[in-house]
Amino acid sequence: MVDPMFNALSLLTLSALAVGQTAPSLTVTDRLGQVHPLRPAPRGLTLLNFWATWCPPCVGELPRLMAAQRPDKLRVVALNVDQTPASALKFWKENALGALPLVFVGSGDLSGWPLPGLPTSVLLDASGRVRALKFGPVSAGELAGWAGGKW
Length: 151
Description:
Helix content: 10-25%
CATH class of the domain at 49-117 and 125-138: Alpha Beta
CATH architecture of the domain at 49-117 and 125-138: 3-Layer(aba) Sandwich
Shape: globular
Structural class: alpha/beta
CATH superfamily of the domain at 49-117 and 125-138: Glutaredoxin
Order of helices and strands: EEEHEHEEEH
Oligomer: single chain
Strand order of the largest sheet: 5-4-3-6-7
Number of helices: 3
């Protein structure tokens, strides 16, 4: 059996997402079905977390991500990859994750965002520059450092 963590996305690298460079544009669909460009928070840092419900490490880190949010310091956005909004929203409700912003993106829409697998997190500053990249679950220590402006 093939481990879902090593799907087609794992064949890609994060080479197009270099620390210090401006992140490529990304269009997402919100909970209401509206399509719009994803923008970093105007102040502080924005952590983009690419995840899926079938990914145990992704699911395990979601409560940490929700708890790590700090107004004007760290905004976390969960980007559900290639799942139907209905299934992801059902999971969101069942796991009481409503305080964590959720948007949807298809793998076909990730041009310029090559991900090695899930979960992958990308930390952006207010100008949209990549400050940190992380493949795999983010630790509480990393989240605390990023919320404190350390990357």
